[in-house]
Amino acid sequence: MEIHHSIPALRQALQERGRIAFVPTMGNLHEGHLTLMRAAREHGDTVVASIFVNRLQFGPGEDFDKYPRTLAADCDQLRAAGVDVLFAPTEQDLYPEPQTFFVEPPDLQHLLEGAFRPGHFRGVATVVLKLFNCVQPQAALFGKKDYQQLMVIRAMAAQLALPIRIVGIDTVRAADGLALSSRNGYLAPPERAEAPRLYRTLQTLRQRLLQEGIEAVPRLEKEAAASLDEHGWQTDYVAVRQQAGLLPPTAAGQPLVILAAARLGSTRLIDNLEV
Amino acid sequence: MEIHHSIPALRQALQERGRIAFVPTMGNLHEGHLTLMRAAREHGDTVVASIFVNRLQFGPGEDFDKYPRTLAADCDQLRAAGVDVLFAPTEQDLYPEPQTFFVEPPDLQHLLEGAFRPGHFRGVATVVLKLFNCVQPQAALFGKKDYQQLMVIRAMAAQLALPIRIVGIDTVRAADGLALSSRNGYLAPPERAEAPRLYRTLQTLRQRLLQEGIEAVPRLEKEAAASLDEHGWQTDYVAVRQQAGLLPPTAAGQPLVILAAARLGSTRLIDNLEV
Questions:
Q1: pTM assigned to the model
Q2: Model ipTM?
Q3: A162/B133 touch (CB, cutoff 8 Å), yes or no
Q4: Which residue, A90, A58, A74, is CA-closest to A25?
Q5: Sheet containing strand B233-242, strands side by side
Q6: What distance in Å separates the CA atoms of residue B257 and residue B268, rounded to the nearest whole number?
Q7: Counting beta carbons within 10 angstroms of the beta carbon of residue A16, is it exposed (0 to 12), middle (13 to 18) or buried (19 or more)?
Q8: What is the mean pLDDT of chain A?
Q9: Which residues of B touch A158 (CB under 8 A)?
């Protein structure tokens, strides 16, 4: 596996490499990321991964400084997963001057995660566009775990006429159902034992939703959040939304997704479940 | 010359075309545009032009509706200038849904032209990025007549890591000095006779600036604006600025540019002169 840090070296390395499938990450890789890497093989001749902890998408008081940076172990895993090229820029490589041009997403950026993390999706859209311009892939793969991020990037690709297919890949879960996440490493053992409740709560809500219909959504959302809070969580939201655009459902038969974010101690977990 | 209207047809046509040099325009072509087309030949194997009157960069009350649309004559001129491919999308092709993602430029967008045309450079940056994503050129050429536009696009290319060289080309002028512009066609004959005063005023200002130094800038700017106004112009600004970033000069020896915008009747003209 080739590793490049600077944009010019990366571009040089990717000439004559055929169709590129790209998986951007913030590193601290787990099986969810590696599933994306293996899936990428079906979408290009060359699989490129990136590792960059993007300051722009962290708010003040968020975990930018303590976000786990594990490059050596990540490289071993990427090699084993058959990745051809890793782009691992420093901040100086990707932001040689302070970033002043931004991709400004529409209202979708202020919903749900965006309401709790102001500026997050602007930071995500900007860095993803910039990474796309460095790598120039034909396809890019993202996990459905960050569902709203996937929707923002899909919309950005359509709206800015990016010549890139955006591929969403199902969330990988631990045996007990917990969605894999780099932030799971923050959980103390009792919290880790409690954490699968988040996914179970989404499953229960889905079952009731299928029985009771969308009229019950406000009540079901409240009950789900209350049941998490009863078990020591601080719930930011549990929300039933349309898959496209993430607005509340307006009619029966729409493809829906249930999204949740809740804190367990100082760790904030998110998950979602398509209906 | 091939003409394509849809993004998929354009992309199909540009496969296997080698390095592409691109000149985006709003049509109603004059010798300034054609100079860009001929210069483009030195920057790529294939020269692509686009014609698209971009609603996003016009403010309310501006001349979007009356902006001259002369596609047949433009095509003849592009053919004669040796352009290989013309991309002429309809609004439906380029904005199949309302544009909701924008490229948001930094403070530079609010200076000078931006102060008089709020949102203009956001609209320019967004459509240029979108056209770049359609054409995927190695180089793109812009006239220096729209100096601030060139600075915004140069900065965007650097800030978003676009794999595109941005080339600025000197303004083409009529024999009497008037910068060529599609908007010159709006001028009545007496206005057309008066119009070269704009460039003469910039030349006079440059001469005095070289004699008197940057301490004199505020006075020279005022005098230049007043002399235009005395001759029936309504001056929006005459400004001496640093070339990079378009901020006021802070020290002797900086590369400077003098920029002006003024209305003659209902026609708004802009021009500039590097020092």
A1: 0.95
A2: 0.93
A3: yes
A4: A74
A5: B233-242, B256-264, B267-274
A6: 20
A7: exposed
A8: 97
A9: 97
